[in-house]
Specification:
Elements lengths: L4 E2 L2 E2 H11 L8 H12 L3 E5 H7 L1 H9 L1 H19 L1 H6 L4 E5 L20 E11 L3 E11 L5 E5 L12 H5 L7 E3 L5 E11 L13 E7 L11 E12 L10 E12 L11 H11 L4 H7 L9 H12 L4 E2 L5 E2 L15 H11 L18 E5 L6 E5 L1 H5 L11 E4 L3 E4 H4 L5 E6 L2 E16 L2 E24 L4 E4 L4 E4 L4 E4 L8 E4 L11 E21 L5 E4 L2 E4 L10 H12 L8 E3 L5 E3 H11 L5 E3 L2 E5 L6 E5 L4 E5 L2 E5 L6 E4 L5 E4 L4 E6 L2 E6 L23 H10 E4 L2 E6 L2 H12 L5 E5 L3 E5 L1
Parallel strand pairs: 3-4, 10-12
Antiparallel strand pairs: 1-2, 5-9, 5-11, 5-16, 6-7, 6-8, 6-9, 9-10, 11-12, 13-14, 15-16, 17-18, 19-20, 20-21, 21-22, 21-26, 23-24, 25-26, 27-28, 29-30, 31-32, 32-35, 33-34, 36-37, 38-39, 40-41, 41-43, 42-43
Helix pairs in contact: 1-2, 1-5, 2-5, 3-4, 4-5, 16-17
């Protein structure tokens, strides 16, 4: 390992000290906890916030910027050293860990247009839109060659663009043989995942009249397939160069590219336009003018004379309309489209170019100038390398549906087999909301379903189900194996021949779609099955759709269908707040004690108030409630899919007006919780886990509880020592006596880290009875 000293201290050792010693604002060992969780999650990458390193060791942070490859290698080695203490078995099973840097300061965020030679071999961050992406390939990083004469194997690291071969065989050279021929042994060589994508300037950052610039990004290991065409991403990495092919009479010119260290997918939404107080004052002054409409129309391409009606239409296009919902539930979209038709040379293109230059997310395209991707997306070949890329088209980059299933469509669940989707919807737990201005009902669910990724069936968890009213045409799609599915015309199905999602209305008899055989299990491959019939139906009633985080698809009626509530992720903030308001009614009493994934215990009321005091600028005002987004703070709690216990980040906290009464649930293990009446509770009924309201839980219901907590025993060292020292055997059971209920609960949680269940009994003191 390459070793360089920082004031006499090894870089790797300094990082190990940083991982072991750094505490966050809550006094928690931030990176020790993250490294411990890596073993539980099977992860090989540790996310490091640059600001933390800068606070802990400014010189080391500066060295990271100046010599990123050397320092990142040392930081990765340090992860393995700390992992040996946290989980020696996992450390020995993983060949290499990776230190990933994120949240770098603005001084290191370089615009694509601003990249220069001074940034070479330095750590920088670049933000843009992904426009092209290659398939995942395998890069040879260590080649094994076998000598044809003696069979000796020679390992050669591969660092350049071509295949580096050994010059001679050590054994043959020592024996005086001059002939050295080798065969590449692929099965003993080392490969890593490799992918290339293109990051392009965001439209809102383009100078007027300029074409967008781009930079190639190389992603390896677990960074492949993190982004898709059209995604907005921040890539932190090392700026490197590779020599371009040139004639002998040309100077040596090198092309820059970014070796990705971390990738953060922000969103597909354009950044909010920042309005200063001066801007607001001017806007209000203009709004009071009686001729404001004429003023706006005249400001559109003022150098182009006339076209008042056209400019008036373009002004309406830029402002957009107001979506309307009729009493029968039919929605009229507020989007405005303009079609210009005229003779050549009448300034049509100039008007459109002007609109694209001032729109927050405008992309100008034409039949002559658009790429092969056109308006959507396409697979294109890069001329210089011959590689194929998936390129995003204009509509993907400028991106805005009711795609749903008939209530009798059967969703393939892993617990109950085929179940009609309408049966998964619980109206008692549903709340009303607006999705893009359309009234919908959303209910929380917890169903294990089948989905697909890379042509292989995967297990996934459906967490939300949506119901909405539909009047109009639906399509019944029937396959040659008898599978059938009734969907709205714009619902997306997976075209097995082209490998992409297409609207059901575009499919024809004879086309093949991705499907699964009855009784299929995770790990099996999906099959391409021919469509035998497509029938139009008139329908008036409710239609449904699931939300499946991660895969965003599920098997219904034997056919792979896209979940179209991934629009929930992209929902208008106002719409999402209305959903949050409804969900926030399902809350805990402020005295409820909560165990965080770090091992810290808090009263939920005090915990929420502390966060509200620290981040007042984040508060969202809802109806009779206050909502605080906290996902980026990295505060995690325990959750379960009923197979294992794992951690997830807290997305938001809230506080609101308390109901007239609460419900206290007391469990057989001595614990209790106090919640609002509508709070969801998991209980086992009829041989399966279902969700009921807290005020509908019956005495005798069995609720799932963890058998073990994935926390380091070091976190509960004092409680475990107290349990060991105070344990007594009474009536054949091990009993620990404590003086306070809170202490009894702490001992009970500590015992779960070693896999011991217990019950709390209350008498003159508190007893923790180990089962």
């Amino acid at each position: 390992m390459e070793r360089t000293l920082v004031e006499g201290v090894n870089i790797s050792e300094r990082f190990a000290e940083f991982y072991r010693s750094f505490k966050d604002q809550f006094g928690e060992y931030k990176y020790r906890k993250r490294i411990a969780r890596m073993a539980l999650e099977g992860s090989t990458s540790l996310m490091i916030d640059f600001e933390d390193l800068l606070t802990f060791d400014p010189e080391l942070a500066g060295r990271l910027v100046e010599e990123p490859k050397l320092v990142l290698r040392a930081a990765s080695d340090a992860i393995k050293e700390v992992m040996k203490v946290e989980n020696a078995d996992y450390a020995s099973s993983v060949e290499e860990f990776f230190a990933r840097i994120r949240n770098v300061p603005e001084s290191l965020r370089i615009p694509i247009r601003g990249i220069r030679a001074v940034h070479l071999n330095r750590l920088i961050a670049v933000e843009g839109i992904v426009t092209k992406i290659s398939p995942v390939k395998q890069q040879l990083v260590e080649a094994v060659f076998r000598c044809r004469e003696c069979g000796e194997e020679v390992r050669i690291p591969q660092r350049g663009r071509g295949l580096e071969k050994p010059l001679q065989c050590p054994r043959c050279a020592s024996e005086g043989r001059k002939k050295h021929e080798f065969d590449l042994v692929l099965e003993r060589s080392k490969f890593i995942d490799w992918q290339k994508f293109v990051l392009q300037e965001r439209p809102e950052e383009l100078p007027p009249g300029q074409l967008p610039r781009s930079i190639e990004v190389i992603a390896t290991h677990d960074l492949v397939d993190v982004v898709r065409p059209g995604d907005r991403a921040v890539v932190t990495g090392v700026l490197s160069v590779v020599m371009e092919r040139a004639r002998k009479d040309q100077p040596p010119i090198f092309q820059t590219y970014l070796e990705a260290n971390s990738i953060e997918v922000s969103s597909k939404e354009a950044l909010d336009v920042e309005i200063t107080p001066e801007d607001e004052k001017k806007i209000r002054e203009l709004a009071r003018r009686p001729d404001i409409r004429e003023l706006l129309v005249n400001s559109i391409a003022p150098s182009i004379y006339g076209y008042k009606e056209v400019k008036k239409a373009i002004t309406a296009l830029l402002f957009g309309g107001v979506p309307k919902v009729h009493p029968d539930g039919v929605r009229v979209r507020g989007d405005i489209h303009v079609l210009l038709i005229g003779d050549p040379g009448t300034a049509k293109s100039q008007l459109l170019r002007y609109v694209a230059s001032i729109a927050p997310r405008g992309v100008y395209t034409s039949g002559k100038g658009s790429t092969a991707a056109g308006l959507t997306a396409a697979v294109v070949r890069e001329k210089s390398t011959g590689d194929f890329f998936l390129e995003a088209g204009a509509l993907v980059l400028a991106d805005g549906g009711v795609a749903c299933l008939h209530p009798e469509s059967e969703v393939w669940t892993l617990d109950e087999g085929p179940v009609e989707i309408s049966e998964l919807f619980d109206p008692r737990r549903a709340f009303k909301a607006l999705s893009r201005g359309v009234p919908v009902e959303i209910s929380v669910c917890n169903n294990r379903v089948l989905g697909t990724m890379g042509g292989v069936l995967k297990e996934a968890l459906a967490t939300l189900i949506r119901r909405k009213w539909w009047e109009g045409k639906m399509l019944r799609v029937e396959l040659e194996d008898g599978s059938r599915l009734v969907v709205t015309p714009d619902h997306l199905l997976l075209d097995a021949e082209r490998g992409r999602w297409v609207e059901a209305i575009s499919l024809r008899v004879g086309d093949r779609v991705a499907a699964a055989r009855l009784g299929s299990s995770p790990g099996e491959r999906v099959i391409g099955t021919r469509i035998m019939a497509i029938e139009e139906l008139s329908y008036r009633g409710y239609v449904y759709d699931l939300y499946v985080p991660g895969l965003h698809n599920f098997v219904a009626g034997g056919i792979v269908a896209h979940n179209c509530i991934d629009e929930f992720d992209k929902m208008d903030p106002k719409d999402r707040v209305s959903i949050h308001e409804a969900m926030e009614q399902q809350s805990y009493h402020p005295d409820t004690r909560l165990l965080l994934a770090s091992g810290r215990r808090v009263r939920i009321g005090e915990f929420v108030e502390e966060l509200f005091r620290k981040y007042p600028e984040r508060v969202i005002v809802g109806k009779d409630c206050l909502i605080l987004p906290v996902r980026d703070l990295g505060i995690e709690v325990f959750t379960t899919d009923f197979k294992r216990v794992f951690t997830v980040p807290i997305d938001r906290v809230s506080k609101h007006v308390a109901p007239s009464f609460f419900v206290r649930l007391t469990f057989s293990n001595g614990r209790s919780i106090t919640v609002t009446p509508e709070h969801p509770v998991y209980v086992r009924r009829g041989g399966r886990v279902v969700v009921v309201r807290a005020d509908e839980v019956r005495v005798g219901d069995v609720c799932p509880a963890p058998k073990v907590l994935p926390l380091s025993q070091e976190v509960f060292r004092d409680e475990l020592r107290e349990a060991a020292e105070g344990a007594r055997v009474e009536n054949g059971r091990v009993v620990v006596h404590v003086d306070r209920r809170e202490r009894a609960e702490e001992v009970q949680e500590a015992l779960l880290t070693v896999g011991l269940s217990s019950t709390i009994r209350e008498g003159s003191s508190y007893e923790v009875v180990i089962e």
